[in-house]
Amino acid sequence: MKRFVLLCIGLVCILAVAGGVQAKTMKLAMDADPVSLDPQVQLSGGMLQYSHMVFDPLIRWTQDMKFEPRLATSWERLDPTTVRFHLRKGITFHSGNPFTAKDVVWTVDRLKRSQDFKGLFDPFVGAKAVGKHTVDVITKKPYPLLLNMATYIFPMDSEFYTGTDEKGKSKDAIVKTGYSFANTHESGTGKYTITQRQQGVRVVFEEYENYWDTKSPGNIDKIVLTPIKKDATRVAALLSGDVDFIMPVPPQDYARISRTDGIKLVTLPGSRIITFQLNQKRRPEFQNRKVRQAIVHAVNNEGIADKIMKGKATAAGQQAPEGYLGYVQELTPRYDLEKAKELMAEAGYAAGFECSMIAPNNRYVNDEKIAEAVVSMLGKIGITVNLKTMPKAQYWDQFDAQVADIQMIGWHPDTEDSANYTEFLLMCPNKETGYGQYNSGNYCNPKVDELIMKCQSETDRAKRAEMLKEVERILYSDAAFVPLHWQHLSWAGKENLRIKPIVNVMNFPYFGDLVME
Amino acid sequence: MFAFILRRILQAFLVMFVISVIGFAIKHNVGDPVRQITGISVSVAEREALRDELGLNDPVYIQFGRFLQSAVHGDLGTSFFYKKPATQVILSKAPATIELVLVSAIIIVVLSVPLGIFAAIRPKHIFSRVVMGASIVGVSIPVFLTAIMGIYLFSIQLGWLPSFGRGATVNLLGWHTGFLTMDGWLHLILPSLALSSIMLPLFIRLIRSEMMEVLETEYIKYAWAKGLNKYRIWFVHAFKNTLLPVITVGGVQLGITIAFTILTETVFQWQGLGFLFMEAVERSDTSLLVAYLMFVGLVMVLVNTVVDIIYGMVNPTVRIMGAK
Question: Edge-to-edge strand order for the sheet containing A72-79?
């Protein structure tokens, strides 16, 4: 009998071990790891990717740019400045504290203090708890992007982050460059908790046992994230089977990865537009609309998307891609060399002129090659361009100082809304309001400014769309900037991962929903 | 002797000071750290406030003074990216580099000595010619290309070796070592071979030419005439005298090895000091950058000081000249 019991115990142990073996671990390689565990310390793609793993937003974007309930189950607009969110019940944070409306209030307050998020949350008065699981989010003026912003509200565990730590520092402090409790501790509601972290080397995410979303098909219990900075090494790690999933995928390896058995490549058109700005303050020639139009006509951006980007970019004629409110179907790329030459002649510059250009060489996909291609294209209409490229660490200071006549910039709107492009890139530069912060072309059209300002408080979707389209049309006919393309986003992984359903144009893969077969 | 050591130490301080000045001079040209730690849509005013808070708006000499003051107390500043004291970050990454350099050094010594000697003794032998030919190729191929070819062949095509990282490490009193696990050793093979690929051919050629020169000297001829055993002549009489210049060159090569760890570590995502340096440059983590330069400078100065002191002990003429 004793022997039988022992045998049974042995069998149970073996089964338990076997069950343990089935736990699914995914090895993930990205170009960088999260800079902090505090979701509000920096507004960057990497930090938002992290936030979607360890925290959960009130609502989130789906692949077709609609809103999907997460911590909020439903919401309704009470009046032009207020939206009421009904929160999911029975959720606990990783610390075990229950999730309630006061956590949302606390989180929004903290967002308004965060250096990186306070700009985005400036239109907000704050959040107000009206019940244990009901919260009102209130804006100063009617604000059409309230729901877009709610995708950035990742409720943090207010109890966990309140008080002082053993160093006597306040736990809710937001510190960018040194120690803070929140930089090294987390308590969210997300699927994963961080069980190990060696910054820059390895982060281990393990499933939180009381994760609320039991309906999700995701079945990965453990994610080991290793940052691999170098493109070639990251691809090699996937090809050799050392990792299961990589992002981003360098375009020069697309063909190789698609060719390899057992590995697949997934791409989606993105919303980051790559443009050149023509500085009208530095070059009187660029004040002439015909010259700007000539330049736009001279740039074969379809060719660039096709040859340099290997088809993994969509040539653009406007700022916002299809699916955005301000997208206008008929504003297409307009490469026409003959027309460009005619326009130059009409403007009185048939002989051309000389100017300077700067571009980064490690910021956007193939940025340096694109700049070189544009230089040779402009050469064909007599514009001699002196190009200087530099690493992104030095680039932005030079960009701000407007050291060159033509400058490259790419933009992805944090709000996922058309107006954001214009606010930062093409509104009249104004130090007081901060509009036109990256408008190094110094393009300034009061009509555009007026329309965008109106859009900011227009909550009627149809009216707003009409105004945003109007803006794009004006910018198009003014040739306010040189549109190149929208970069595609790319991910690659082993065949047994169902990658396609979890990715989106914001590049926040929802790893919690990832299925490994 | 005491005066000599004191002089060396004073010189070492001077060198460290010069390094810190140079570090500070380049710091302002690698980029703006504030840009790297804020999102792109953050307002100018917000950035300016952060810059004020970090003291980056103060005149350079005030920043430098502040840096020196805390450096004297062993504090080299806080890394903007790691959000930890820079010295702590550097010390945590040092074991990876030390292990890599150590293994490469062993590979170099173990291979270059016998190959160099053989090529000197039998210069016309077909094997010697192959070795010399291969060493020319080895010197001319850049280390990152060797590394990438190694990854392509052994990781992707053959699947024998891992392609990146250090593998499993064991924490031994705060020293994360890869020496104690099989996985750690497998991860070491490619990077250490890549790193030694530059120095190995150099040392083979150096040993060969020095040895050939020694073999022509009078005392070797005398030894042959005495009828000594040929192995005794080669390995005891000739090789010993070959070693002196080789060791001198080896010491100087330390600096170059550090430079090559930057390339090797970047390709293999080897989490050591070279990789740290590259990352710091890319992220404009200027305080970490200056700390790295100080640290590497300190290592070089220490090694050279120790070498000089030993020289002084071995060769009294150096000491006498130093005392003048």
Answer: A72-79, A82-87, A134-139, A124-131
Using alpha carbons, select from A221, A264, A229 the residue that is nearest to residue A244.
A264
Residue A336 tokens, joined: 């026409």
Chain B residues whose CB is inside 8 A of the A242 CB are 155, 162-165
Q: Is A51 helix (H, G, I), strand (E, B) or coil?
A: helix
**Whole-Å CA distances, A289 to A181, A295, A296, A439, B67:** 54, 10, 11, 17, 52
**Chain A contact for B35 (CB, 8 A cutoff):** yes
Structure-block tokens of residue B312: 């002084």
CA distances from B199 to A68, B192, B255, B266 (A): 59, 11, 12, 18
pLDDT for the residue numbered B1: 67
- Out of A44, A391, A437, the one facing B282 most closely (by C-beta) is A391
d(CA A69, CA A192): 19
Minimum-distance CB partner of B44 among A183, A201, A437? A437
Instruction: Say what the pLDDT of residue B313 is.
Output: 67
Yes or no, beta carbons of A242 and B164 under 8 Å apart = yes
pLDDT in tens, B246-271: 777 777 777 778 778 888 888 888 88
User: Which pLDDT value is given to residue B146?
Assistant: 86
Contact: A43, B41; criterion CB under 8 Å: yes
Local structure of residue B168 (DSSP, 8 states): S
Six-digit token pair at A232?
Answer: 């070639």
C-alpha distance from B291 to closest chain A C-alpha (Å): 16
ipTM above 0.90, yes or no: no
Query: How many other CB atoms are there within 10 angstroms of residue A492's CB atom?
Result: 28
CB of A37 within 8 A of CB of A205? no
pLDDT in tens, B133-179: 888 888 888 888 888 888 888 888 888 888 888 877 787 777 888 88
Quick check: B279 contacting A, CB < 8 Å? yes
CB hemisphere CA count around B83 (13 angstroms): 22
DSSP secondary structure string for all residues of A67-104: EEESSEEEEEEEETTEEEEEEPSS-B-TTSPBP-HHHH
- Coil, helix or strand at residue B213: helix
Contact A449, A435 (CB under 8 A): yes
Query: How distant is the Cα of B29 from the closest Cα of chain A, in angstroms?
Result: 8
pTM value? 0.83
Q: Are strands A59-61 and A497-498 parallel, antiparallel or unpaired?
A: unpaired
Residue A19: its pLDDT value, please?
44
> What's the pLDDT score for residue B311?
67
pLDDT of residue A211: 94
The closest CB to that of B164, out of A176, A233, A396, belongs to A233
Instruction: Say whether A393 and B284 touch across the interface (CB within 8 A).
Output: yes
| Dist. CA B76–CA B289, nearest whole Å | 10
Given this model, what pLDDT does residue B79 score? 87
Could you tell me which residues come within 8 angstroms of residue A273 by beta carbon, excluding any fewer than 6 positions away? A316, A319, A320, A321, A410, A411, A412, A421, A483, A484, A485, A486
Taking the C-alpha atoms of residue B168 and residue A240, their distance in angstroms, rounded to an integer, is 18
Those residues with Cβ within 8 angstroms of residue A292's Cβ, 6 or more apart along the chain or in another chain: A278, A286, A478, A479, A480
The region, left, alpha or beta by phi > 0 then psi within -120 to 50, assigned to residue B37 is: alpha
| Minimum CA–CA partner of A432 in chain B | B45
Positions of chain A with pLDDT lower than 50, given as ranges: 1, 13-21
